[in-house]
Amino acid sequence: MSFLRPIRLSTKSLLLISIPICFELACVSAVYYVMQQGELEKAKAAHCADLCSRINHSFSLLGRLHSSLFLAQISPSPKLDAAARKVALQGLAEMDEIDGLVAADPEENRSWQRVRKMARQSTDAFENAMLLFEDGDKAFSVKQLKHAQHKLASMTNLVDELVAREKSLQAEQNLKEAKYAAQLKLLLPVTIVLGLAITVLLGWLFNRSMSRNLDALIKNARSMAAGRSPELKVQGGDELAELSQIYGSMYAALSALRAKERAIVDNAAEGICTLNTDFRFTDTNPALQAMLGASQKELLGSRLAAHLNAGDFTLASKAFEAASDSGEHKTFQIKTATAEAEVTMSWSVMWNAEHQEFCCVIQDITQQARLDQLKSDFVAMVSHDLRAPLSSIALAHDLLASEELSDESKDTLTIAQGSVQRLLALVNNLLDLDKLEAGLMAINACEQEVLPVVDSCVQSLALVAEQKHLNISVVVPPGLTACFDREKVSQVLINLLSNAYKFSDPGRPVRIEAGLEGSFVRLSIVDMGPGIARENQALIFEKFEQVNADPARPGSGLGLAICRAIVRQHGGEIAVQSQLGRGSTFSFTLPLSQSLLPKRP
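Below the sequence we write its predicted structure tokens.
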């Protein structure tokens, strides 16, 4: 069977079909040949029998002709003459038919022509004897009769030889016909048996070769599914051997990928794990083991509840259920106490429906939580320890301003008042931003028109626009409504307009426009200022970030961060589109109805 190995499956299939077909065609041709030969011998035997019958009949007619001529001479009558002519015509017709029968066989034709010649000579001699007898020349008539008898005897001998020869040929051809019939009788079952045997043998060889390779492929696939390398080698050069090679290459690539993924997971700074539907760990990485203060052996198979307190586990289980129900990421924060310290963790959970498990990424935010606490403490300190003294200083400045002061003192007092006001604004912005990020600042939103709010904000900054001779245009459709907190959105608009005015050169246009965008209203402030580089556009909404810092244009870097927090509390988004030297477009969205506002916890 080794000869089948280098043959491809398509060629094997073709051989499996073509070889039995070719054999059957050869067998059918052999059967047809034997049948044809039998029919030919049968036709030859029939020819011999027919020829013998016709020769005997012709000889019989010749005898009847002689008798009719004799009777016609003894007792002449029209009836006897007619009978003689009829017999003569029948004899001639029979002889013509025999001429046609023997025309294809030269030997038969020569023998028959000799017979026919002697028949004609004997008939002529008999007719002459009858005429001589009628004329009274009896002696010569007897001589002619003897001559006729001699010719008839010679003809009889030739006829006997010819008939004997034909009968011998007939017997020989009957034997051959019987032989071909026997061969045909034997050939038919042998052909059927051999055809079936060849088909079964080829099918067995083909199936044995292919099934062995298929078994090897199945075992290799199972080994790969279990994480082991393919164990068996598929021999040959057909498609199955090629597929086995592909399996081997695929396993090598998957092994390299798994090793790389395992290295990434093991060296990741974040904790990574998978849990089954019973919240039992099925896989963990070293980072998570360090967070929970347990080894991998201790974690695998243990329940998450064993490493958390009851309240945190209840929070976690609700997040897991929400993730499996919605199919979306869910995040939550929980704490766990290790032998060394208490760890605050931020969990991101995703449900894998295919493997029926939870995939989790965990960050240790203990330091971040401490920083948030420090920030809260700092904001509280600013609120209680700075704002009150600054307010007192501002009041003292106002009292001093009512006194008679020199011009130099007044200038100094003005500078001091401006510094205090900036400090108060910074403190207020810090407090507002902290409340917004903590979700503690109430949003009193209701459905109202957008145009009056825009006009009010533009009007409040009209003096700044006039001083810089800016061309302000408002493109807001009358009657356009949205759901928002008027005071908070006014704060966003004034902040964005102030930035547009601040960074626009004198005489340049600034445009405020609004329009529907799905279930939201988008408001945009377009200026022709210096623009913002693409790499800085994502930074400007962060706290204390100023990408176009200019001493002549002071700022705290908190305005856009506050704008983003306010817009997000409305369920909208704020963005910027800008090109250096071509200006900027700041836009934000507001919902059309109360139902689109974020649900407050």
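The chain has a mean pLDDT of 79.
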